[in-house]
Design a protein that fits this description.
The chain is α/β, with parallel strands linked by helices and 195 residues long. The chain is 44% helix and 18% strand. The chain has helices at 17-27, 60-70, 72-77, 80-88, 114-126, 146-165, 169-184, and strands at residues 6-11, 31-36, 41-43, 52-54, 108-111, 134-140, 188-194. The strands form 2 sheets. It has a 5-stranded mixed beta sheet, sandwiched between helices. Strand 1 (6-11), helix 1 (17-27) and strand 2 form a beta-alpha-beta unit. The longest helix has 20 residues, at 146-165. The chain is globular. The two termini are 27 Å apart. The relative contact order is 0.18. It comes from Musa acuminata subsp. malaccensis. One of its GO terms (biological process) is termination of RNA polymerase II transcription. It is an enzyme of class 3 (hydrolase).
Length: 195
Amino acid sequence: MGTTLRYAMVCSSNQNRSMEAHALLKRQGFDVSSYGTGAHVKLPGPSLREPNVYDFGTPYKFMHDELRRKDPDLYKRNGILPMLKRNLGVKNAPQRWQDNAADGCFDVVMTFEEKVFDTVIEDLNNREQKVIRSVLIINLEVKDNHEEAATGAKLALDLCQDIESADCWEDAIDDIVVAFERQQKRKLLYTISFY
């Protein structure tokens, strides 16, 4: 199925939730990109006080190889190595939302955490609006673990398919959201901003 809209999936580190959704939507033929909004990319380490921290733009392959050298058992057991392997099959490296201005305009930006939703809105509001084209920003709250990310990706796909099938998402979005919330028993936050 060819899609007509451009989608962005956004979480904090562009590792788990946004990449799970990116991978699924890409397989379904969507025009999709993904980003993180954090200052750095953080992955779990041997303890809560010792996360693995990388800069955005560090290739997933580099992270995968480094963590595999550090402690292959730990990072396989906690799902980080399989996650990084999936990621490098989707794109080269995590990208930061705030630095994506060159990527052009998206029609739909889906976030997976309220803090990320707020950051995206703030970033769009602080940009110089050049084309005055509307963009739907929608938040689907998803816990940052592998199981929830997989569930969240399927919900994101359902939602994007509903948006895609509407004649005009601007006219249909209220009904789409109400139907989704009723069916999935999940609250969504959404707003319309401009490029």
